[in-house]
Specification:
Radius of gyration: 27 Å
Number of strands: 15
Number of helices: 26
Shape: globular
Strand content: 5-15%
Distance between the termini: 62 Å
Amino acid sequence: MSDHSPHRRFDGTLVTAPFGGENVERTARDEYRALLDEHDSEDVLVVTGAPTSTDTFRETLGEELPGAATPYVTSLVVHATDVLNQTDDRVILSDALRRELLHRFLEEYEWDTEYLQQASEQPSFIEDVDAVMSTISWQTVTPDETPELRDITAALDAFHEWLAEHGHMERGQLISEALDVLTGDAREDVVDFEAVLAVEFEEFFPLDRAYLDALAGDCDLVCIAEENASVRRTWVETGPVTDYVSFSESRHGASETPSTRPAATASYFADETDPADPETGSVSVLATDSSDEQLAEVANEIEALVGQSGWNYDDIAVATKQSGSAVTDTIEAFEQTGIPAESTTVTGFGDDPAIRELLAAVRYLAADDEGEVPDHGPEIDTERLDRVREMDSLEDGLRWWATDSGLKERIAERATPLNARAQFGNIKRAFRMAEFLEDTAFVDATWESVEEMLERAHEYAPQQNQTSATDLDGGVRVDHLQAIKNESFRAVFLVNLVDSEYPGDPFLTRLFPTERVAAMPDYPSVTEIDEPDVDATFPTTSTASSRPFARYHTEHARRRLAIGAGAADEHLYCCLYEFEDTALEERAQASRFLTEAYDRLPWVTDADDPHITSEQAAEDFLLSRVDDALAQVRRANSQDVTVSLDEVEAELGEIQDLLEKSGARGEDLRKALRARVEFANGEVRR
């Protein structure tokens, strides 16, 4: 739908900043300082394109204010929420509650098109159609050519009407509904500023631009757009944002040479230029045999960094290409090694032990008789739960059980402070679900309804992303690349830099085959495009494909790498693995983007051999030597190659000598080694 965006004229100034976080921050400070010459700081509203970057710009612009003064910084979504909280009585659904209600709504919905009727019989249908509906809702577009998309839009409209009848709205309606307020008589009741500075303007959707236009009104307006940096908007609209807007005044911000090697590498990924070596910072390629070993090596390197004076876990970020399970799997791997980790876009609801305990209790409460009580899961005190069943309020019953059963104390005892905070937050979300059932007429307020809601939230948590940012509290940041845009960390690890991931295959939805989606003129993402569209959007050339659709998504993947690399201040780690996690262990190709950077940028070097920084790492290394030897033998058999085990034999001999000198601990590790070998041979020890 990229060629259907309306052109909009703004009465204000557009400043185009060259690619790079340093250029953007410098331009933002200059423009903010100029606005402060004419207005008080409390009268200047700063609007970001994403909630995750508000803290960054608040800190950057705060340097321009005296004392403890704080800039007035918000995101479009948060501002729209504030507008509706002042003017609309409807309740804004959380992501979890919205998914639950949409699931119930679609279970009974009758589709008009034969394709969706047949697709609705598939187990993943509701999740797949939910993703398309969410995209349409946030963009407020109206597909008018593809019958199935018209059918989905009709279902979305019906869902919104159903929500409105019960006094609710979903987050995807926030900007469109708040726009109606800003263009109506109530605008003066919610506007309390004299000037607007919009940063990340390169990411503003057409609806976002309409909202900004209405928000600014007659106020002074300055917009800052970073060149070759849009990842969110270019997923739905080709070309630079300047193709769709005009301003009464436009100028180009000053460009400076990247000051660090990570920044120079990001610049290379973004526009394919070969900058001079800044000679500050480092860019390292961290290669391992498997994806699991990759995360173990990243964890080991994180511990080495944090072991240095002045380093903290929240100085570090690990970025994946996609969100959902890619993020939660990484967090889980880190937690197993004792590294605290957190995300702004994915909750740990799915693997939270506190939620599993609560869910076991709710399953018992929802069962009509003992035969329906699951015979698995945590042990529960049935007498205590029988008391809960006698209570009138679902929420009060859950809160009483959590307190009386000692759940809160168990969370505090068994979890690190960061994990405990996350678990307490998830328990509060469960309480709000019970409260929601009692306060609305959507669903019957029964324990069966609570069970269904918790089960669904627990099942889909790893696959679902939040549309709002969560607070952070001191762990390693794990998120998808787009979520760390315009943030900065002393060290950033970009994981899975293999060609099957970067660029990987173009993918928009599981609901339709990719080839069909690519030909849909009204799909709410970039689909029907030609060569000029690709050239207008990306200055890079990373593939020889003759298909514009494939070229476009290849260059988009490269730009995402540029965004991730740009978040590193001192150290950038490009991480990859050599073999896929498949039965035949096929060889994984390094990402073409990384291969080119390695060849053209002399400061991109192999990481130093890892040092053992913890007992866990020492155990993993010891046991991995046996796994590596066995893997070499398997590959030799399956790929008809010859391998030498002399080096492995020598290492195992040294390990044997070391274990003999390590007393009881050495004997324990010797047993673990023996078990590994026997398991690999198909033997089971009893």
